[in-house]
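Dear Dr. K.,

Following up on our conversation at the group meeting, I've run the structure prediction for NADPH-dependent 7-cyano-7-deazaguanine reductase from Neobacillus citreus. I'm pasting the input sequence below exactly as I used it, so you can double-check it against your construct before we proceed with anything downstream. Let me know if the numbering doesn't match what you have in your notebook.
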Amino acid sequence: MSGRTDEQGLKDLTLLGNQGTKYLFEYAPEVLEAVDNLHPNRDFFVKFNCPEFTSLCPLTGQPDFATMYISYIPDQKIVESKSLKLYLFSFRNHGDFHEDCVNIIMNDLIKLLDPRYIEVWGKFTPRGGISIDPWCNYGKPGTKYEEMAQFRLMNHDLYPEKVDNR
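The predicted C-alpha cells came back this morning:
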C-alpha cells in the first residue's frame, strides 16, 4: 500500500480506526489530533461542514443546533477529521453563547495547528424567532494571511441570506 507512512504522522493517531472510541459529552479540546501537512509548499483550503453541531444555552440549558463551517489554510499540520468530529461532539453538553462557541473552536484549532489562515462560521437554527450566525477568522501575524483575514472580515457577508433559504 502506498501513500502516507507512519513516519508522516500515522503512528501518532489514536482515534482513527479505533473501534472502541468513546464519545465525550463534555468539552474536550484534548481529543484533537493533527498530522503533518505533506504539501506545506502550497496554499490550499481545507473545508469542513459539520451540520450536526449542538451546544447548550449557558443560562437556560436549552439546546442550540448549528451547522459549523471550518475552513483553513494549513501550514505544517492538518487536523485529523475523526478527532475533529469527536471534538465538536464534545460541545453537546457545553453551555456557551453561539459567539463563544465559534471563537473557542477557532482558538483550539489555532493552538493545535498554527495554520496560515482559519475561519469558523456557525449558522445556528432560529430559537425564539431569531438566528445567530457568528463568524470569526485569523491570519498568521506579519504575513499575507493577516491581510487576507482583514479583507475577508470586512467582506465576508456582503450578500446576506434570505429568510426563505435557511
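Two things stood out to me. Strands lie at 34-36, 46-56, 63-73, 77-79, 117-124, 135-139. The radius of gyration is 17 Å.

Best regards,
J.T.
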